[in-house]
Automatic annotation (TrEMBL):
The keyword Membrane does not apply. CDD domains: AdoMet_MTases. Its EC number is 2.1.1.-. HAMAP family: Methyltr_EFM6. Keywords: Cytoplasm, Methyltransferase, S-adenosyl-L-methionine, Transferase. It is an enzyme of class 2 (transferase). The gene is EFM6. It comes from Boletus edulis BED1. GO terms for molecular function: protein-lysine N-methyltransferase activity. It holds the Pfam family Methyltransf_16. This is Protein-lysine N-methyltransferase EFM6.
Length: 265
């Protein structure tokens, strides 16, 4: 869903809103990306702990270089990433994507080598590119405006043989070319409430009881819990505990979860 930001705050009537979540929803309708812009982890604070260089929202067609894992390992992999806020919020790299990419690089054999991997809401493609470099057969997906930057990033990193770009809008029919994956990746995809049922529907259509889903998200507001209320109808999850960076990103309200389908009765 691409929601135009063309409403005016002048239309907003606070008297009809009874609680904080309703207020959040009304403000989201006016400006769906306001929570992302309020993300202090990419603001003017101390970034010495961050892998992804600070990307101002006005960023236009720039290249950044990233290494994973971030602990200076001799086996670190390197990614060149085109970032451009023009196509939408997905055109820059987000903190949950950074966390997930880093975890994959630490646990490459467990999650990537030889596996069929599908990333949802890939944006620049960062997480999927890392999975491709680590030996996965990867599909990176997003809505149409992001496809050019994803193609550019696949080329920049010479990953054409292992990473395929496909259009996949949550809630819509799955493209035929996309295989049923062993592993689904999703980073920073919980931020706009109208898309929550769409994302759950897509995950539900893709995942069998054997599918692993690594789901990294940054809690920004109370309404995020609606996503998990929907998800828990068919899925269980648990926190990933073997990530040495966990304490650091927990302080930024980021969680990395393993989600899996509940066994059918
Ligand atoms: C905050 S960005 C995160 C991008 C990337 N995963 C990262 O961590 O850098 C959210 C992504 O979800 C995508 N998205 C939002 N709604 C979508 C939908 N209905 N179908 C498919 N992708 C969607 C956006 O285009 C964007 O790329």
């Amino acid at each position: 869903m691409i929601v135009p930001i063309n409403s005016s705050l002048a239309d907003f009537d606070p008297s009809v809103l009874s609680d904080e979540i309703a207020l959040d929803e009304a403000l989201d309708a006016l400006d769906p990306l306001r929570h992302l812009r309020g993300d202090t982890s990419l603001g003017d604070d101390d970034h010495s702990q961050s892998i992804v260089p600070v990307q101002p929202r006005s960023i236009q067609d720039e290249l950044i270089r990233l290494s994973f894992p971030d602990c200076g390992s001799s086996t670190a992999i390197h990614i060149v990433l085109r970032v451009d806020a023009g196509p939408g919020c997905g055109g820059i790299a987000w903190p949950a994507g950074e966390v997930l990419a880093n975890y994959l690089a630490l646990r490459r054999e467990r999650y990537c080598t030889g596996r069929t991997i599908l990333e949802l809401g890939s944006g620049t493609g960062l997480v999927g590119l890392v999975a491709g470099q680590l030996g996965g057969k990867v599909w990176i997906t997003d809505q149409a405006p992001l496809l050019d930057i994803m193609h550019a990033n696949v080329k920049l990193n010479q990953l054409d043989s292992s990473v395929t770009v496909s259009e996949l809008s949550w809630g819509e029919a799955l493209p035929h070319e996309i295989p049923r994956p062993d592993l689904i990746l999703a980073a920073d995809c919980v931020y706009f409430e109208p898309t929550f049922p769409l994302l759950v529907k897509t995950i539900s259509e893709l995942a069998t009881e054997q599918t692993e889903i690594l789901f990294c998200y940054k809690k920004r507001r109370k309404a995020d819990k609606h996503f998990f209320t929907l998800l828990k109808k068919e899925f269980n999850w648990k926190e990933i505990e073997d990530d040495p960076s966990r304490e650091r990103y927990s302080r930024e309200a980021i969680s990395l979860l393993m989600v899996y389908r509940k066994p059918r009765k």
